[in-house]
Design a protein that fits this description.
10 helices; Rossmann fold; Arc Repressor Mutant, subunit A; three-stranded antiparallel β-sheet; elongated; seven-stranded parallel β-sheet; 15 strands
């Protein structure tokens, strides 16, 4: 087969790659060789081209589709989505809040609902970078440590060097984290690298990581990774969580609570 013919066939192969990614999100070169009937070198060239176009990210032995929204929804919009599920998740998270402990509340609408439930707790210390969470606790309740820094308006959370500096010197018993996506292959992800960096620091400074994420986040991959799924100790989600996803997390040692 001539080089010209191979070149002419490239758009067809790449369209098929797009369809496969739309169905599976994560693909492996060995599987693509069989499905597309092309050589490993050809498959890798096509993956490199789609990565150049921003449609996927290559990994060792494969690739994954990146979901980067053109415009991330504001915090107020996200707070109005799946409210019943988020309320149940927040209630289930309460049993992990023990007296005399220091806990971290991440930015995010589900974690914000947990903050509302802590307004009468005077037996804990709360560290947070979330302005909405802090607002719930300013009048009364736990001892409150508010992390400063640059405000990221989409999440209403602080990020940047000042937040980094403060968190590097703090250690928490438990961290209640949010996420825009959680994938078995790519872990906890968020649309913004500055946010993922802060989340990574927090998760390295807490004894237990508890992820609060409704089922719509399962399988989604956003731009920047905060941590692999193995970093999570507990995932609290809702009853619509995919059964295979749930089973695989448990197989990897993650406690999964369905609220």
């Amino acid at each position: 087969m001539s080089a010209l013919t191979l070149k002419d066939l490239a758009p067809q192969r790449q369209d098929k790659l797009r369809r496969i990614l739309a169905q599976h999100e994560v693909v492996h070169v060995s599987e693509l060789i069989t499905q597309i009937k092309a050589s490993p070198a050809t498959i890798r060239r096509d993956l490199a081209e789609l990565e150049r176009l921003g449609e996927l990210r290559r990994t060792h032995g494969g690739a994954f589709r990146v979901k980067v929204p053109r415009q991330e929804a504001p915090f107020g919009v996200k707070s109005a989505e799946a409210t019943e599920e988020k309320q149940r998740i927040a209630l289930a998270a309460l049993k992990y809040v023990n007296p005399s402990e220091t806990i971290f509340l991440d930015a995010g609408s589900t974690v914000h609902m947990l903050a509302r439930l802590l307004a009468e707790r005077t037996d804990i210390t709360v560290v947070t970078r979330s302005l909405p969470a802090a607002a719930e606790l300013t009048a009364h309740g736990p001892k409150l440590v508010l992390i400063g820094g640059d405000l990221r308006r989409q999440s209403q959370g602080t990020v940047g060097p000042l937040a980094h500096l403060a968190l590097e010197h703090l250690y928490m018993d438990r961290a209640f984290m949010g996420a825009s996506g959680v994938s078995l292959e790519q872990g906890i992800t968020t649309p913004d690298p500055t946010e993922s960096y802060i989340q990574e620091i927090v998760m390295n400074h807490a004894r237990q990581i508890i992820l609060l994420a409704d089922s719509s986040k399962a399988g989604k991959v956003c731009f920047a990774r905060s941590a692999p799924v193995e970093k999570i100790h507990v995932l609290i989600s809702d009853k619509a969580l995919d059964r295979k996803f749930l089973s695989e997390l448990r197989r990897r040692g993650v406690e999964v609570v369905v609220a």
